Task: inverse folding
């Protein structure tokens, strides 16, 4: 059971990493023209990196907040649904 749980944990981590990569690529693609203009006007690469990371962090924090709220809501919902009376629980 622990091996299966570890496998699905690793799979979830892989999917999360791929999603974050896709999110960052999308944000940079949407702002490629603006980034090019800023670089042509003399902006430093550090300021461009801060600009992109600020946008990514904003989306990431809002996603973490939504996920945390959804998780706590589903936990409360599942805990009320899964309560069984002691007489109906199967024996092991």
Result:
């Amino acid at each position: 059971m622990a091996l299966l749980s570890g496998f699905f944990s690793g799979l979830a981590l892989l999917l999360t990493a791929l999603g974050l990569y896709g999110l960052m690529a999308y944000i940079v693609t949407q702002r490629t023209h603006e980034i090019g203009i800023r670089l042509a006007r003399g902006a430093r690469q550090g300021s461009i990196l801060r600009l992109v990371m600020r946008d990514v962090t904003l989306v990431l924090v809002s996603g973490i907040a939504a996920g945390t709220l959804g998780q706590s809501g589903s936990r409360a919902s599942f805990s009320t649904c899964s309560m069984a009376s002691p007489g109906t629980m199967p024996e092991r």
